[in-house]
Write a structure and sequence with these properties.
heterodimer, A: about 375 residues, alpha+beta, six-stranded mixed beta sheet, 8 helices, 22 strands, elongated, B: about 290 residues, mainly alpha, MetI-like fold, 2 domains, 14 helices, flat, disordered C terminus
């Protein structure tokens, strides 16, 4: 049993089931990110942990104590909202200690806790201001201060960075991660931004259509996506997915895909992946952009780099890298090349494909083929 | 405010501006004329009015009509002046406005932040209550007041105005609170605040503009009401409007027009005062809800 246990939890609004049977067990000190597109049920799940929404069936327990029917105030949780939800009529200090005041903490202790948190977040100079006088980043800090001061068992974050501009978002992301490393708190964090999920989490639950599609460490989710949705959702640019066929040539499994000029190319799988038994099967092959690169940029430690001459359709220089587009299996495919590679649209160019990173999916079920 | 206005103003030529101002001044005079007549005639002796010359300034300025209207004029059978009825109106209007505003705020809070099954129906019925013509409820209401023993009393009048006022005040607050971020309520719930604490500490402090609108609206309506006052009050609980009518309508003796004018101004002063003090919030508050829809 973990620190926060979500057991067989579902949520329905009338006949519409927005969250299907979900089981997640979070250990103490873990940073769990719920990630998915809007409407996937991630915020609903978070609100159910907070007690802001009822559970249709199943159980949520914190520290072994069932939270079903327990008021949000009595769960010893704190939440940071997307809009920060700072009380506009109170100053920053009052905002931070409002929860303590409601829980009957005497004033000297409240002031002490407030000063500690203000120092931690470096907002001492803001304590007398009203939320309306603060910038977005400052509001974000105050909202976190309000959560921290309660010293809760579990922190809940509901897309806390989505109202900030791009630069500030990256800064605050780092700050949240530092804070977590320092305080070793248990956090459940909702976002639709897969980069946030990968950078912050110790574990990710990728959600879609009311189902948890995959639960695992950032590396597991990134390298071994359980299905095509996870493969396409995590990572930017997203994983290339194109149709191919498994064949066995000279006793070795290869993926046969069509190039833009109609000719076939054979991409040998590394040995011992066991694809030989799928001889003749139609699959969707998944390759991350970084697994398709220029010859010199390819991973030297990989034993399965295969070079393919292909037609360059487009190049997108992005400063640190150049993204190069071609076609495989009739689908556009993007490779991540080193920035100083001389490559131009219209020419034919050698693409180094690292098949060690290749994953295969069933085109019908969209599930992983192993 | 002024810089705001200049940004939206359309530039016009001198000629058209002359026409616009002339028209505006004419309209202004037209609207101010009745007030002028009332003020001027309340400050002159009756003989001057009887001699004609309603529009003329007084030859002899006097406050006697005001004193008479306030404390000695004949109203009904007794020569009490308007004073006791003014007091009646105040005693009626203050609690009626206060209670209906607070209940409206509470209703709006529940209807937007504590939604429950059938809440739209309840709100619909409350809205419907706003538009029921007064005349329709006169007899049932009289019966009700009789049963609960409030007939012919000021508390009875307060009750009637309260019932009528809640519909409007709920409408105002409900629409206002609809714009109020629900995340704030949720944050307060997690912080441990209960239903009434959230209302008192989070919602009410942010309700200034709409509260002003609600108070002005209720105050004006209740103060100016004649029908309920005439129907549900006894002689000693009559509000100002009914007493003013009795003053003007009394059939004995000479018609003291100057006293009538003074009394009419007295009856209008409180609402005028409320508008002058809080009027700009009224316009602001009305706009605040409407643009963000």
């Amino acid at each position: 049993m973990g620190f926060l246990d979500i057991t067989n939890v579902t949520k329905s609004y009338g006949a519409v089931k927005v969250l299907h049977e979900t089981d997640i067990s979070v250990e103490e000190g873990e940073f769990l990110v719920l990630v998915g597109p809007s409407g996937c049920g991630k915020s609903t799940l978070l609100n159910m942990i907070a007690g802001l929404e009822d559970i249709t069936s199943g159980e949520i327990a914190i520290k072994g104590r069932s939270m079903n029917g327990v008021r949000p105030a009595d769960r010893n949780i704190a939440m940071v909202f997307q809009s920060y939800a700072l009380y506009p009529n109170m100053n920053v200090g009052q905002n931070i200690v409002f929860g303590l005041e409601m829980h009957g903490v005497p004033k000297p202790e409240r002031d002490k806790a407030m000063n500690e948190v203000a120092e931690l977040l470096q907002i001492q100079h803001l304590l007398d201001r009203k939320p309306g006088q603060l910038s977005g980043g400052q509001r974000q800090r105050v909202a976190m201060g309000r959560a921290l001061v309660r010293n809760p068992d579990v922190f809940l974050f509901d897309e806390p960075l989505s109202n900030l501009d791009a630069k500030l978002r990256v800064d605050m992301r780092t700050e949240i991660k530092k804070l977590h490393q320092r305080l070793k708190t248990t956090i459940v964090y909702v976002t639709h931004d897969q980069i946030e999920a990968l950078t912050l989490s110790t574990r990710i639950a990728v959600m879609y259509g009311g189902h948890v599609q995959q639960l695992g460490t950032p590396k597991e989710v990134y390298d071994n996506p359980a299905n095509m949705f996870v493969a396409g959702f995590m990572g930017s640019p997203s994983m290339n997915l194109f149709p191919a066929r498994i064949a066995v040539e000279n006793g070795r499994a290869v993926a046969v895909a069509q190039l833009a000029d109609g000719s076939d190319v054979s991409l040998p799988f590394p040995e011992a992946r066991g694809f030989e038994r799928h001889d003749g099967r139609e699959i969707v092959l998944g390759l991350r952009p970084e697994a398709i690169t220029d010859r010199d940029g390819a991973d030297r430690n990989s034993g399965a780099v295969h070079v393919v001459e292909a037609h360059v359709e487009i190049t997108e220089p992005a400063g640190s890298d150049t993204f190069v587009g071609t076609q495989l299996g009739g689908k556009p495919v993007t490779g991540r090349f080193r920035a100083d590679v001389e490559v131009h649209a219209g020419q034919s160019f050698p693409f180094a494909i690292n098949m060690e990173k290749a994953v295969a999916f069933d085109p019908k079920t969209e599930e992983r083929v192993s | 405010m002024s810089s705001n206005a200049s940004a939206t103003v359309v530039r016009t030529g001198a000629g058209s501006r002359f026409v616009i101002y002339t028209l505006l001044i004419l309209f202004c005079l037209y609207y101010l004329l009745p007030l002028y007549v009332m003020v001027v005639n309340s400050l002159k002796p009756l003989s001057e009015i009887q001699a004609g010359g309603m529009m003329a300034l007084p030859d002899e300025w006097t406050l006697a009509p005001w004193a008479s209207a306030w404390s000695t004029a004949q109203i009904g059978v007794e020569a009490t002046g308007l004073r006791p009825f003014f007091v009646n109106s105040i005693v009626m209007v203050v609690p009626a406005v206060a209670i209906s505003t607070v209940l409206g705020a509470l209703n709006g809070y529940v209807l937007t932040k504590w939604r429950f099954r059938g809440d739209t129906i309840i709100f619909g019925l409350l809205l419907f209550g706003c538009f029921i013509p007064f005349q329709m409820v006169l007899i049932p209401m009289a019966r009700m007041l009789g049963i609960v023993g409030l007939a012919g009393t000021v508390p009875g009048l307060i009750f009637v105005h309260l019932v009528y006022g809640i519909g409007f005040s709920t409408l105002y607050f409900r629409n206002y609170y609809q714009q109020f971020p629900t995340e704030l309520v949720r944050a307060a719930m997690i912080d441990g605040a209960g239903f009434f604490t959230i209302f008192r500490r989070i919602m009410l402090p942010s309700s200034g503009p709409i509260a002003v609108v609600c108070v002005i609206w209720q105050f004006t309506n209740i103060w100016n009401d004649f029908l309920f006052g005439a129907s549900f009050s006894d002689f000693d609980s009559q509000p100002m409007t009914v007493a003013l009518n009795n003053l003007v309508q009394s059939s004995t003796g000479v018609k003291e027009y100057n006293v009538h004018f003074a009394g009419a101004i007295m009856a209008a002063l409180p609402t005028l005062l409320v508008y002058i003090v809080a009027g700009r919030y009224f316009v602001r508050g009305l706009m605040a809800g409407s643009v963000k829809g």
